[in-house]
Write a structure and sequence with these properties.
The protein is about 40% helix and about 25% strand. By secondary structure, it is an alpha/beta fold. The chain has 2 domains: about 140 residues, Periplasmic binding protein-like II (D-Maltodextrin-Binding Protein, domain 2, 3-Layer(aba) Sandwich); about 90 residues, D-Maltodextrin-Binding Protein, domain 2, CATH 3.40.190.10. Strands 10-9-11-8-12 form a 5-stranded mixed beta sheet, with helices on both faces. Strands 5-1-6 form a 3-stranded parallel beta sheet. The longest helix has 26 residues. The radius of gyration is 22 Å and the shape is globular. It starts with a helix and ends in an 8-residue tail after the last helix. One of its GO terms (biological process) is amino acid transport.
Length: about 290
């Protein structure tokens, strides 16, 4: 009987301790409705920024488990200027299809995952000013090149779920069958295996991928007009939105976005792309 009491006491004590630890863990990320978003970020001592894990050279995790890429460099600068230390950024790994949901559910403060601005997305999140320009492109095998959309009729086109590529072809070319994947790694593996006639994605992405994958070329380098890529915050978070816009203007005076390009994108594109074709400095499109 005594042994049973001891066991029960141990279980109760353990439960209390677990509850205490859980409470401590929760308190580190709990939001205070009385605090503004920036006050909350400073109270937490970190800023949570959503980035890709598998989209080099924009956002990816290297062999040492470190976040790298163009978006990541800019995100670190945001943390440095807001909190005084770039290490105070917490990178949250996202996929294209869940970027909006992560903002809506307060899992992140900012999305910096190569997020293209669209009218549909503007209904759900607030976009800051842009830091990049982009259009769609199509990559295909050299032995069966796709150089026009007309060649895709009756064939499969590989896309990522939740991307502008999926939206564009769904709305404008419903006759083309789309083979959809959640993750970039899955999408490009499908292209390597030639499960589709081509792969549509941001032209910045397919150009970079083709350069590092012999046997594939970008036959359609620009499609659907020029769009912009920008940081996004939760709908209605005007304070953080204004801070980002001011930050982009400030770092633009030192050409920081161009410097981030030189560090992360130029090694991939070389001289085949002019930085001014892609980079937006100061948050202002020219």
């Amino acid at each position: 009987m005594k042994s049973i009491k001891k066991i029960l006491a141990a279980v109760i004590t353990g439960t209390v301790l677990l509850g205490a630890f859980a409470g401590c863990s929760k308190s580190a990320t709990t939001t205070d409705s009385n605090k503004s978003s920036i006050e909350q970020i400073k109270a937490n001592g970190k800023i949570r920024i959503g980035v890709f894990s598998d989209k080099p050279p924009f956002g990816y995790v290297d062999s040492n488990g470190k976040n790298q890429g163009f978006d990541v460099v800019i995100a670190k600068r945001f943390a440095k200027d807001l909190l005084g230390d770039e290490s105070k950024v917490e990178f949250v790994l996202v996929e294209a299809a869940n970027r909006v949901a992560y903002l809506e559910s307060n899992k992140v403060d900012i999305i910096m995952a190569n997020f293209t601005v669209t009218d549909e997305r503007k209904q759900k999140v607030d976009f800051a000013n842009p830091y990049m320009k982009v259009s769609l492109g199509i990559v295909s095998p050299d032995d069966a090149p796709i150089t026009s959309v007309d060649q895709l009729k009756g064939k499969k086109l590989i896309v990522n779920k939740g991307t502008t590529a999926e939206d564009y072809f769904t709305k404008n070319h419903p006759e083309i069958e789309l083979l959809k994947f959640d993750q970039n790694t899955e999408t490009f593996e499908a292209m390597k295996d030639k499960r589709g006639a081509g792969l549509a994605h941001d032209n910045t992405e397919v150009l970079a991928w083709a350069k590092s994958n012999p046997g594939f070329s970008v036959g359609v380098p620009s499609l659907g007009g020029i769009d912009s890529i920008a940081p996004a915050v939760k709908k209605g978070d005007t304070e953080l939105l204004n801070w980002i816009n001011s930050e982009l203007e400030t770092i633009g005076k030192e050409n920081f976005i161009h410097k981030a390009y030189e560090e992360t994108l130029k090694p991939v594109y070389g001289d085949s792309v002019s930085p001014d074709e892609l980079v937006v400095e100061g948050g202002k499109l020219k």
